[in-house]
UniProtKB/TrEMBL annotation:
Transmembrane segments: none annotated. This is ABC transporter substrate-binding protein. Residues 21-270 form the Fe/B12 periplasmic-binding domain. It comes from the Bacteria. Residues 1-18 form the signal peptide.
Length: 270
């Protein structure tokens, strides 16, 4: 009898999970959901959720900082997972009043990624899979730690390329700065937040490594950075152009992003 009851409980649990309607705002959270093998629960995601490819086929809510309350609720979600960047605040408050909402907002760091995975796994009742994923990530980070700190870390410029909206440089308090901190790379950009690129300041700083994060594939064009060849980084081929969510999302691809930066920083990628 106990075996029958146990099997029945398991079947009910699996049925409940299969019926769960999940909405996610935050590309890093969407990547974690897929990494937990729970992508089949998703009914909609925000516009920053562009990985994996399956996420691009889902209905889009719009931008993570401008969530539509009515449009989200019309999807009849059982659970809404929100990045700490989700907004505006009144919209988040209304969603919390109307449905089940979990805000996942650890710091932007390797440790923060592990916490983010744990929190998403708990919200989806997938703790065991979450522990497995975090074990894999810890192993990747341990391998990276053996290569750090670099003996002579290059002066680094991190650029956010938004296509026709131009380019910005990442200062303190940004996810770009957090990536550099994780790798022990000094940032040549002074001040807080993202700001328009100042060519004179960049040439004066003469970065030895330039990281260009694209908001969408192909959004960066060389003519956006005509000064590139006049920097130490450009002269020595230490320039990395990569997907912005991969570099700055602090999702499960963070070890890949850190490895890619290290390869260019040390010349291993040439």
């Amino acid at each position: 009898m106990r075996v029958v009851i146990g099997l029945l409980a398991l079947c009910l649990s699996m049925a409940g999970q299969a019926q769960q309607r999940l909405v996610v705002a935050g590309g890093e959270l969407t990547e974690i959901v897929y990494a937990l093998d729970a992508g089949d629960r998703l009914v909609a995601v925000d516009s920053t959720s562009n990985y994996p490819a399956a996420a691009r086929q889902l209905p889009k809510l719009g931008y993570v900082r401008a969530l539509p309350v009515e449009g989200t609720l019309a999807l009849k979600p059982d659970l809404v997972l929100l990045s700490g960047e989700a907004g505006p605040p009144p919209a988040v408050a209304r969603l919390k009043q109307a449905t089940s909402v979990r805000v996942i907002d650890p710091e932007w760091s390797p440790a923060g990624l592990l916490a983010r995975v744990e929190q998403v796994a708990q919200a989806l009742d997938l703790q065991e899979r979450g522990e497995q994923l975090n074990a894999e990530l810890r192993e990747r980070f341990a391998t990276l730690d053996k290569r750090l700190p670099l003996a002579d870390p290059p002066r680094t410029l991190l650029v956010l390329s938004a296509g026709r909206h131009g380019v910005q440089v990442a200062g303190k308090g940004t996810q770009g700065q957090a990536l550099l901190d994780a790798l022990g790379l000094p940032n040549v950009t002074k001040g807080e937040g993202y700001k328009p690129l100042n060519a004179e300041a960049v040439l004066a700083a003469d970065p030895q490594l330039i990281i260009i994060a694209e908001t969408r594939p192909g959004s960066f064009q060389p003519e956006q950075l005509p000064l590139l060849d006049h920097t130490d980084a450009g002269a020595h081929g230490r320039v990395l152009v990569a997907d912005g969510m991969r570099l700055l999302g602090f999702g499960p691809r963070l070890p890949d992003a850190m490895e890619a930066v290290l390869e260019v920083a040390t010349g291993e990628g040439r």
